[in-house]
Amino acid sequence: MLPPARPEEVTDLPEDIALLHHFANTEDLRGFVAHGQRLTAHDVLATPADLERWLREHDLLGPGEPVGDAHLARAHALRAALRDALRQDGEAGEVLLDFPWQVKLTALGAQPVVCGDPVTTALARIVVAALTVTANGTWHRLKMCPASDCQWVFYDRSRPGRARWCSPLLCGNRMKTQAYRRRGATQTP
Ligand SMILES: [Zn+2]
């Protein structure tokens, strides 16, 4: 099966997982060949206009809201922190995200409220998704593929939740072949 061209092609994800998955994969570093087709690394959020379009497509922002360079920088910082946290090598450090929060307490419980402009509030919705999936225990199923030429963020649907590769057939096999070749190379006199 061909890998998804866009993260939005991956369907049936739980709502908050989907938002994190789609956002994390806006930085697409995949550069391998799958079934004769080369994937090219690219950044879906390269400009403020890209960010505006992405937020609108994900129903996080209304039309006509200005998106500036500072918003793009905030989005990139959030994405970098998210992607680092999803690495499986355990090397992720701690990142403190700077969002202006208040918490609303009602009879229904506690709810975070962001006191920022519309774009900051939209980005904070992604942070709330991370809080939600941490609380509901599905965070650990969201992982970054460890293949250096992939680094795609995927949702591990396996029952034990121990999947390592975004695709065992593509990335798992490719990495095994590369490791085998490296071992062969070091053994050649
Ligand atoms: Zn992969």
UniProtKB/TrEMBL annotation:
Q: Where is the Zinc finger CGNR domain?
A: 141-183
Q: Which Pfam families match?
A: ABATE, zf-CGNR
Q: Which InterPro entries does the protein's record reference?
A: ABATE, ABATE_dom_sf, Znf_CGNR
Q: What is this protein called?
A: CGNR zinc finger domain-containing protein
Question: What broad taxonomic lineage does this protein's source fall under?
Answer: Bacteria, Bacillati, Actinomycetota, Actinomycetes, Streptosporangiales
